[in-house]
TrEMBL record:
<comment type="function">
    <text>Multidrug efflux pump.</text>
</comment>
<dbReference type="InterPro" id="IPR002528">
    <property type="entry name" value="MATE_fam"/>
</dbReference>
<dbReference type="Pfam" id="PF01554">
    <property type="entry name" value="MatE"/>
</dbReference>
<comment type="similarity">
    <text>Belongs to the multi antimicrobial extrusion (MATE) (TC 2.A.66.1) family.</text>
</comment>
<keyword id="KW-0812">Transmembrane</keyword>
<keyword id="KW-0472">Membrane</keyword>
<feature type="transmembrane region" description="Helical">
    <location>
        <begin position="173"/>
        <end position="194"/>
    </location>
</feature>
<protein>
    <recommendedName>
        <fullName>Probable multidrug resistance protein NorM</fullName>
    </recommendedName>
</protein>
<feature type="transmembrane region" description="Helical">
    <location>
        <begin position="98"/>
        <end position="120"/>
    </location>
</feature>
<feature type="transmembrane region" description="Helical">
    <location>
        <begin position="140"/>
        <end position="161"/>
    </location>
</feature>
<keyword id="KW-0813">Transport</keyword>
<feature type="transmembrane region" description="Helical">
    <location>
        <begin position="323"/>
        <end position="344"/>
    </location>
</feature>
<feature type="transmembrane region" description="Helical">
    <location>
        <begin position="60"/>
        <end position="86"/>
    </location>
</feature>
<keyword id="KW-0050">Antiport</keyword>
<keyword id="KW-0406">Ion transport</keyword>
<feature type="transmembrane region" description="Helical">
    <location>
        <begin position="286"/>
        <end position="303"/>
    </location>
</feature>
<feature type="transmembrane region" description="Helical">
    <location>
        <begin position="21"/>
        <end position="40"/>
    </location>
</feature>
Amino acid sequence: MSGTKTVAVKLTEGNILKKMLIFAVPIIIGNLLQELYYIFDTLIVGQTLGDIKLAAVGATSSLVFLATGFIIGITSGCAVLTSQFFGAGDDNRMKKSVASHIVIALISTVVLTVGFVLLAKPLLILLNTTSDTFAYSKTYLTIIYGGLPATMLYNVTSALLRSVGDSKTPLMLLLLSSVLNIGLDLLFILVFGWDVAGAAIATVISQGISALLCVVYIKFKVPFIIPNKESFKGIKSMLGDEFKIGFPMGFQYSVISIGMMVLQFFVNGFGSSAVAAYTIGNRVQLFLQNPLNSMSIVMATFAGQNAGAKRYDRIKSGTKKGLLLCLVYSLVIGVLAFIFAEFLTSIFLSNSDPITMKYSIEFIRWNCIFEWSLGMLFIYRGVIQGLKDGIVPMIGSVLEVMMRVLSPLIFSTTLGFASVSFAGPAAWSASAILMIIVYFHKFRKLKRIGTL
């Protein structure tokens, strides 16, 4: 195969903990940068435009993830076959895979962009968006949806780069995009006075520039993955294979976002202060939880490689070490966030609205108490996915949605905003129990048949 030599981390040999950490660090940094992308939007809007407009941007978070989550899932899924053909040294099928990926991305982009732009207002109405934030939310959401082509292009190109072993370039471009987003936020909001629209435009432009740089990088540094005219001929079967892998992953993200939407509906019912508090608390927690989420990706790759090598004993050992890392992190970060919840909230606010402060602190502290259950969920779910079981994680996602719905539905009238605060922990705990049961069942079965 011509082109750039790929450096990969082989997880089937060597010191387990050391290899896991080497593999995990770039993923953790990348995920943290991606979350910082949205944190700075929230922080800058909160500090410069006030609580109402902060609430307006926050009220769109689940709706933004409904679209972007599906894009992340489908592009990651479609890149799986590209990675397999690259590893096998099959240039022709690799290029056909990339061609299929491009076709699916183009069709999905048109459908998603047109569909979501038209649905922006109805979706906000469906979520019971408060009247004082509605117009701002609609403006922000419509611009983000209009920029979905940039989101798709970035995720397609970065997924393809990772599929051929290049995880550093997407990370560097994500860093550039984050810095650019902050600068444009300040320029468009403070200098140009574009209000919440400025924050949305900054996000779209910065992501679009990163996507174009990815395209340029691929053209000059990894041209061997670029399909030719022949690659687009007779790809019907390949399209089907790509879709079978990509769509379920996209759908899984969408299921999670539906749970977020339902929870947002209940939050909106508590008023603008609650929406602002939920926005702040959610941003803090998503940032703190990113290393745990990253470990889920690490465990899926670790389990996948070792399952292929029939090293199931190594998977068990790696699971224990990964679990220990996550539990230690969860306990330390949980205690610190619990203590500094008020300080973390104040970073995002330009004033000291007592209701927003109270709700945000309550949300952060409820989540902190149960960080360990989220760590267990991510470790065991990652291993199960690495063992090529996509059904159980899907069931777990549905279970999470049910718990996020039931918590405020049952307790909102008696416990108020607290029912929203512990909805997440209830969802993680229920799904984690399912993953633990399935994990031990799988390994008992392996032991019974003599594989372990």
